[in-house]
Write a structure and sequence with these properties.
163 residues, alpha+beta, Pantoate--beta-alanine Ligase, Chain: A,domain 2, five-stranded antiparallel sheet, two-stranded antiparallel sheet, 2 helices, rod-shaped
Length: 163
């Protein structure tokens, strides 16, 4: 017997008192549904975050592999520019008397390759006063998008007064 209402109460198999009101039973099942919905929404959010982080990491890996390819293209273009700068200095370059006396900087024309990479060489001739200083040749290479630039340097010790 319920001491408030004076009615007999029903008990379930677990020994808990059951309510005679359908409204209370409906409220219990409703709160269980809300908890299930909350868990499903939280699991979906976690799954979304994990997928977003994995996608971001994949994007960075793809970008890094593209940068490695562009860097390789720029290195080979810089190497070709360095070779061209050496050729230009020894076979095509005729220094002016001012250049031999005070030193000068000569830039070769830009080289374009079939893969759309570009390169140029810069030759730094030291002054006659500094005869022990080497001629420095810089080869600059750029990838097709000009996002990656690589520079190689070569030093050549030349005695300009020798025949």
């Amino acid at each position: 017997m319920n001491h408030r209402t004076g009615r007999a109460q029903r008990y379930n198999r677990m020994g808990h008192a059951q309510s005679n009101s359908p409204f209370i039973e409906h409220r219990r099942s409703r709160s269980a549904g809300q908890a299930l919905l909350l868990v499903v929404v939280m699991m979906g959010g976690i799954l979304f975050l994990v997928t977003a982080v994995a996608g971001l990491l994949m994007y960075y890996q793809i970008q890094q592999s593209n940068d490695i390819a562009n860097s390789t293209i720029a290195i080979f273009a810089a190497d070709a520019a360095l070779e061209y700068g050496l050729y230009h200095y020894f076979y095509e370059f005729t220094p002016t008397p001012e250049c031999l006396e005070s030193g000068c900087i000569v830039t070769t024309p830009q080289i374009s390759f079939h893969n759309f990479a570009h390169a140029s060489a810069t030759i730094v001739v030291p002054s006659a006063e500094d005869a022990a200083a080497p001629v420095r040749i810089y080869g600059n290479g750029r990838d097709p998008g000009a996002r990656t630039i690589r520079t190689l340097e070569s030093s050549v010790l030349v005695n300009p007064s020798s025949p």
